[in-house]
Amino acid sequence: MTVTDPRNPTVPPSSRPSLAVWKFASCDGCQLTLLDCEDELLAVADQLDVAFFLEASSASVAGPYDVSLVEGSITTEEDRARIQEVRAQSKTLITIGACATAGGIQALRNTSDVSEFLRIVYATPSYISTLETSTPIADHVSVDFELRGCPIDRQQLLEVIGAYLVGRTPNTPGHSVCVECKQQGNPCVLVAHGTPCLGPATQAGCGALCPSYLRGCYGCFGPAETPNPHSLGATLLEAGLPPDELQRLFHTYNAWAEPFRGAVQVPTPTHRRPATQQENTR
Amino acid sequence: MGGSTLTPATLIVERDGLDALIGELRAQHRTVLGPLVRDGVITHGEVTGIDDLPIGWTEQQSGGTYRLQPTGTDEIFAFSTPSESWKRYVHPPRALMLRARREGPAITVETPRPEPEPVAFFGVRSCDLAALGILDRVLLDPEATDPNYAVRRSDIFIVAAGCSTPAATCFCASMQTGPSPTSGFDLSIAELKGSEPLSYLIAAGTERGAEVLGLLPGRSATAADHEHATAVHDQAVAAMHRTLDAADPPRAAAAPEHPQWNDIAERCLACGNCTMVCPTCFCSSVEDTTSLDGNHTDRTRVWDSCFGLDFTHMHGGPTRTSIASRYRHWLLHKLVTWQDQFDSSGCVGCGRCITWCPVGIDLTAEIPKLARAATEVAP
To answer: B163 FRET partner, CA 20 to 30 A, in A184, B73, B192, B314?
Structure first.
């Protein structure tokens, strides 16, 4: 069947949307996923003017930008102000990865005593200026789309960019990893091997990567649309998983994502006291 | 075929006869798919001879648990239901429905179809045979035939295998779908458990089955062989303790306010595993993907689950937002409204939804609770 396209398919370079990629508190793995697109990278550059992407090029074009990809969480006063500026300069703002969408692994601080961490880790804690919490971008500015993952999935990133370009909703299902895992034909590592797995509570998108290698899901993509972490947690405990390991399982990359946050009882730190001068300088 | 006698109708073979059977099917250029051990489960995959089959393996299944176990015997069919049904082959998880290409001002649209491929399903359990029959009724409905399914289903040589060792999760006898196949196969194997040497009674169900049977090394079956097969069947029936009253679907329990739905929802993970492993759950969604330059579009049919929110997403959002409403929808469709739509239950009693539910929700245990409490609350 052949029909005539009513649109003019030729896109003049000047009308290409501009792209900016921003980094907040993160490991760079998610923006690296964009560079990792290798085969599709030229196609991306054909459709978008890469205006600001420090990991790829130090040549930057001033804003405003049509679309911003934002990686990382908000952990400092400076970043709290900077994200407002990024939002003001971006027509469409897409957050990428567990840090930007849930606060990341650094959100473990949210249930602990940050000054204690500073005292243990840094020789001179007074050099460190940080907020008490690590929070997702959506806690600070309005976000147009959140892409999950630690790191994000390359194909899903291309899907989101492709969907943005033609103005449709991206296919990023909110159902569990189990649906993808069964589509792949994997045996269930939880049922068949007794391996602790967060798949039933975790959003799909990775292609069931870990279970495909017979490992349990670590929950990198955060909570599925309507997870039941309490029931899954109870089952894992019944199967013999020690409570501290259950807590560790839920509280990694997406520890601050609401349904995972409350999935297990977080013990209150018992040593909440300010570090002494002597301890600070040792 | 009409009126001709199936000759020979039955045959007794030993292991070499089964090996010859797989060899003969392969000689017919068929890809033979059968049970095998992989990654700690008995599943389906390509088999090239009997050595690929799960010789000496069985499994223990219960709600939320599956464990492979050695039998210490040479039995080939001492397991019950493989982890996967045959759905993957006749109704694959992803199928390309449409491909559109734009070149200049022209848009070309193709509707690709799979090439018919001669296949043999080896060792099909009776419950799974019944499930194929149900999928046929749904997807080969003359008024709404699924063209992909029709092609994949068009040339499958089916070798069924009676079940001697049902799992604790099985209830095919109660659903009248097993444990021994009665129709819908080209050949059907009964392992004569305990025979010396270990023998197999093979019966032909079609003319082409009988032709293959005539090529195998073996001897004719005696009355004693048939009695042996009946005894194995009777033992399998006696070993099944779960039941589901197929004749009396729980219409009374359909009330959404029934408290048992919330009790289930507290345990249910809404993960969709039950629908994925169900041999008759056929629901899928359709996904359009576009290339970055907007010149290519693929429309793909993907397995979907009624436990996902997107399943009922329409203008204004999803309609079944609570887990209770989604479990209720699945169970009542499977057991009740399936009968209205397709004149049968959607359940064949394979028990996979019990085993592969990570929290072990058991529909055979929930149905009596739903029925009982509904009676109690009735005026």
So the answer is: A184
